[in-house]
From TrEMBL:
Belongs to the nucleobase:cation symporter-2 (NCS2) (TC 2.A.40) family. The chain crosses the membrane at residues 43-69, 105-124, 130-149, 170-188, 194-214, 321-338, 350-372, 384-400, 406-424. It comes from Pediococcus acidilactici DSM 20284. It holds the Pfam family Xan_ur_permease. GO terms for cellular component: plasma membrane. One of its GO terms (molecular function) is xanthine transmembrane transporter activity. Keywords: Membrane, Transmembrane, Transmembrane helix, Transport. This is Permease. It is a multi-pass membrane protein. The gene is pyrP. It is found in: Membrane. Its main location: membrane.
Amino acid sequence: MSKQKQGQYRNPEAILDINECPTFPHLVGLSIQHMFAMFGSTVLVPILVGLNPGIALFSSGVGTLLYILITKAKIPAYMGSSFTFIVPMMALMKTTGYEGIAQGTISVGVVYLIVALIISQLGSDWLDRILPPVVVGPIIMVIGLSLAGTAAKDATMRTVGSQSVYDLKYFAIALITLLITIVFNMYLKGFVSLIPILLGLITGYIVALFLGVVDLSGVTHAHWLIAPSFEIPFVSYHLHLSWGAILSMMPLAFVTMTEHTGHIMVLNTLTHRNFFKEPGLHRTLSGDGVASIVAGFIGGPPVTSYGENIGVLAVTKVHSVYVLMGAAVSAIIFSFIGKLSTLIESIPSPVIGGISFLLFGTIAANGLRILIDEHVDFNQKRNLMIAASILVIGIGNASLNLGDLSFSGLAVATVLGIILNLVLPQKALSER
């Protein structure tokens, strides 16, 4: 079924190890399976924000290929749309639009490259110092909980003219979508258990279709093959730097860096290798950064490594980078299928709302899990002060406005959390 290059370590637990390539029929099947496991989350981010899903698919595929190239084809990782930046991207879409999101996305990639350069010279211990669990956990919780209102609005409110009105039918569709996705999560086995979000979207879409909520007119008139409409900053728009957009997204790069580092740790265990040493953390961060810069230049959201990818690798025991490259090429091909992109855009808001109930809650729960797994002690005043400040400022979206510059509550909370962690003593005077 495959070949392994001589002299290379082979993981005995893998059906296909990192450098093993399956025969062509198996490669096609495994690649499409892997792509669909990433598909639901990759297109959900642009749907929520209002970006083009086709562009997100395209940038996901191109970003994955670039990542594999930069990491010397030694890490089986897939790049998908990042959920971390949903809050600032939603705000920017209402103000600066594509231009601001693109500049923010490019700035995120630049931060990655700067940190990668520092790590290549100094190592990575300092990253743990500024982003311990007491900072990262609450920030991830904020990302999920600050979006709760958006999910509720999508699930219950129908737009009539310029007004939003409560619609019980919408809420019913949202609840059905939520419950069926929970059922898929709990009771499915094998490969289909890895794509409950995608299956939930499809089921909710069918329910909405029967209830007359879906508008298919756009799908009928769409072409089968169409080039994605790239929104290229500084070309599609006049050259104008949006510092508010850049500074609202840039600090969150440190959050996704932490997630990325965690993914690499899990991949180390799964593949019985040490990717921090070879090809090195500076290369993994560089690959992620370059992928986001390219995504920004074509109008896509920031991309990052995906936890779903690790799930597929663990269940199938197929770790081949050739399969990952095949999945990336499949995503690029799908982005040129016009009817598919239009079909995705026709998904009604209550279906998105139902999925978002679970998705945003899961993000928040993952932040809580970090605090529990790392045994963060909230009897210590220091930890309580840091977490409390991040949670309320972030969830309440206490934005900072300085003239033309605007920083989202999430960005303010992230920076404040890092500063408090660096300056507060380990124990308050009353605890000594």
